[in-house]
Amino acid sequence: MIIVTGAAGFIGSNLVASLNALGRKDIVVVDWLGSDQRWRNLAKRSFDDFIFPEDFSDFLQQASGKVEAIFHLGAISATTAIDGNEIIRKNVKPSMDVWRWCTKERVPLFYASSAATYGDGILGFDDNSSISDLRPLNLYGWSKQTFDTWALTQAAQGKAPPRWAGFKFFNVYGPNEYHKDDMMSIVAKNFGRISNEETISLFKSHHPDYRDGEQLRDFVYVKDCCNVMLWFLRNATESGIYNVGSGAARSFQDLIQAAGAAAQRPVHIEYVPMPEKIRDKYQYFTQASMEKIRAAGYDGQFHSLESGIADYVVNYLAKSDPYI
């Protein structure tokens, strides 16, 4: 069996869809559904069992010798999270527990880190460099950095799963992100306005090196993220922490223009002041260095911004049922 934690979430549900597309139904999904619409993320999926996170530890005790791999994607992913105790309970401690179980049972582990660990980017976005000097700008990024550091320490001591990888996902967009509210990509947030030819609001720049709307991000399509994870499942390669991005920095203005082109609608953009509470934590530039993952042997192609947005808009957002 393959276990996917956070399976009802954005990246997790796309991974389950990718596994189903390969004929894999021997999947154990671990998550909460809550009262939002996340159940729709799994409505088309096939899996063997659904486990609540509070029951996961007991489940693992009965799963010895039965697990092929664990994809640990479950976490609080909001960059605005402020409850440190909750972050420890849901992001850090469960990751440590899964790591220890996979180490003991000799099961490959693949987990979600984040580009948020790079902070303001002053030290670059190179996954070949030491992570000890990175300073995340928010609690979420700190939780991922804390576990990355702990995992590397454990591995250096010989206490690691037989194969493992942490994936520093950059700005991921794509189907099944609709439950994420403010954490949705601006394409998902604004598709209705684009379709109705309404004005789209983007943040003004408060940095002298960037014009309004030209803050840059490495936008990566969720299907490419799933392709990377499945490649690591199939291929034995050097364990470690890897960037997962497109390798290209593009502006928010580019993103909205690509969505308008895919929807065959003109776009109208206005620039509004960035809220003061996020100005000192705002990243003006991200771009994944992809040399490490290429050196590991991954030769899959990544969608360009235009091709990824076109697939997202035409095959999902423009449909009455936008779920994968």
Low-confidence stretches: none
Into which percent range does the helicity of residues fall? Answer: 25-40%
Sum up the overall morphology in one term.
globular
Provide mean pLDDT, rounded: 95
The whole-angstrom Rg is 19 Å
Tell me the fraction of residues in β-strands, as a range: 15-25%
Topology order in helix (H) and strand (E) letters: EHEEHEHEHEEHEEEHEEHEHHH
Strand order of the largest sheet: 3-2-1-4-5-6-11
Distance between the termini: 22 Å
The biggest sheet, with number of strands, parallel, antiparallel or mixed sense and barrel status, is: 7 strands, parallel
Q: How many individual helices?
A: 10
Query: How many β-strand stretches?
Result: 13
Which class of secondary structure composition applies to the elements? alpha/beta
Description:
This protein is α/β, with parallel strands linked by helices and 324 residues long. 35% of the residues lie in helices and 16% in strands. The chain is built from 10 helices and 13 strands. Helix 1 (10-21) packs across helix 6 (222-234), helix 3 runs parallel beside helix 4 and helix 5 crosses helix 7. The longest helix has 22 residues, at 84-105. The protein is globular. The model has no long low-confidence stretch (mean pLDDT 95).
